Amino acid sequence: GACVGSTLISYLVVFKVVDYGLLIVFVGYCMQEFSKSDTRRDIGGAIFGLGLLFFSMEVMSNAFAFMKQYPPFLNLLASMGNPYLGFVASTVFTGIIQSSGAMMAILLQLTGQGMLTMKSCFGLMLGANVGTCVTGLLAAIGRSREALRLAMALLLFRLASALLLLPFGTQFSMLVARLC
Questions:
Q1: Burial of 180 (0-12, 13-18, 19+ CB in 10 A)
Q2: How is the chain classified by DSSP, letter by letter?
Q3: Rounded to whole angstroms, what are the CA distances from 75 to 25, 27, 95, 102, 115?
């Protein structure tokens, strides 16, 4: 369920909902501060947090705007035609930032600016899916053995899925092209 839910973030980026992050923060803040009902205050808190997420995604994508003319970065993107290299790079980067949603937002921004193709994003997308498991592994530190097992199961499932799909990047890209 979490994998499907995090996919929705990509749609919010595509439909430019993230552009309204500060407005959503304001609405959430007002609901949280001025509502008399505990339920409405809780909903306001959730809306506030969602707005902060959207705003931070917008700030991150704007922070990468200078990269459009940065030769080392452009050379790195050119090498992403190799899905295995993209997979490793994205896994590491997503593990560092601990957010596949943020990584996907960056990829969507770069793709929207014509800097990446669907084919080059394939390995990057799979790497983001695996790299986000770092969050679960960190959360399992100091918890029960069952919590650690759950985090490891998620990592192994996503890693195995990615490694099974990586060789089929071209076919997958063609399938997506037919669907859209």
A1: exposed
A2: -HHHHHHHHHHHHHTTGGGGHHHHHHHHHHHHHH-SSHHHHHHHHHHHHHHHHHHHHHHHHHHTGGGGG-HHHHHHHHGGGSHHHHHHHHHHHHHHHT-HHHHHHHHHHHHHTTS--HHHHHHHHHHHHHHTHHHHHHHHTTS-HHHHHHHHHHHHHHHHHHHHHGGGHHHHHHHHHHH-
A3: 37, 42, 22, 22, 11
Q: Which residue has the tokens 């990615």?
A: 162
Residue (of 68, 74, 56, 64) closest to 18 by Cα position: 56
pTM for the model stands at 0.68
Tens of pLDDT, residue by residue, the chain (180 residues): 555 566 666 666 667 777 888 999 999 999 999 999 999 999 999 999 989 878 887 776 677 666 667 778 767 766 777 889 889 988 998 888 877 877 887 787 778 777 788 778 889 989 988 998 888 898 899 999 999 999 999 999 999 999 999 999 889 888 988 887
Question: Can you tell me the distance from the alpha carbon of 130 to that of 122, in angstroms, rounded to the nearest whole number?
Answer: 13
Say how many C-beta atoms besides its own lie within 10 A of residue 88's C-beta: 15
